[in-house]
Amino acid sequence: MKIDSEVKIMNIINNNSESVARTIEEKTKKHPCFSQSAHKYARMHIPVAPECTISCNYCNRKYDCLNETRPGVTSEVLTPEQSLSKFIRVRDKLTNLSVVGVAGPGDALASFSRTKKSFQLIKKEDPEITFCLSTNGLLLPDYQEEIIKLGVSHVTITINAIDPEIGAYIYEQVDYHGDILQGKEGAGILLSNQLEGLNYLAASGVVCKINIVLIKGVNDHHIEQVVKTVSHYGAFMTNIMPLIPVEGTPFSDVPLISKKELNSIRQRCEPYLKQMYHCQQCRADAIGCLTQDRSREFTDNCGVNLSRL
Ligand code: CLF
Ligand code: SF4
Prior knowledge:
Strand content: 15-25%
Bound molecules: FE(8)-S(7) cluster, iron/sulfur cluster
Strand order of the largest sheet: 11-10-9-6-5-4-1-12-13
């Protein structure tokens, strides 16, 4: 059965007052990641979230979170106050800025107090801007209500497997409220919190994108199942991303997938859910339109370099 993005938008409308739903629909049309036709709009990442609660086998914490961004570039980490002043500078220069997002350099919810304060400060300055965050999903049940209260309309959750046996190969460990869980146990808690959070947010009208890191030989045979499951739980679209192997990690030798193979998997999943084909696997401090990064124009070195944390 084809689950059309129009149908997802209609569900959002049915689950909210008409005016809230229309606002979310308008915001989605101007969100360059959620809507390919919004390519003329710019997004700004505020790198305020350095911490993480899980250990992915493709992650080297010297770099940005691979669930949303590409490796090889360390980001500075800003305080909430620094993120506000950077936002004001960027907005004054980029009149097409429509979205402010937290995509690391760790996990937006592992550093939730910093994420929350930054959004609150920016919202006071500009109540119309769209807020977006990206997370591994472990702490969604803790913060899902606050995410909605904050007015975050777009959330990305990385879900790489819907079978804990496969997840156990992907996650070295999960630190859940201080309990260090490994293998199927860790992957199982992570999965259950991801799906609970997705279900809650989607039912509350938040537009949810699921990122899936495609790891050849580990979850490549399982992608369609992930897409079907997250569609059932209310996801708006999936973004199947190729793993970019990082030195010094257990997955450093995983073979690269070609663009052709990747697109053919995305096309196979298209009947179940809207697919993203234009992700740039951008930095945690990216600024500008997706294909034209302008972050260098705004780097003032007032934050902390991640490689020194
Ligand atoms: Fe940033 Fe992500 Fe929001 Fe976009 S990025 S938090 S949804 S505003 Fe976009 Fe960049 Fe791909 Fe992410 S191109 S890595 S999908
Ligand atoms: Fe690294 Fe991101 Fe995974 Fe955390 S969620 S371990 S920062 S890739």
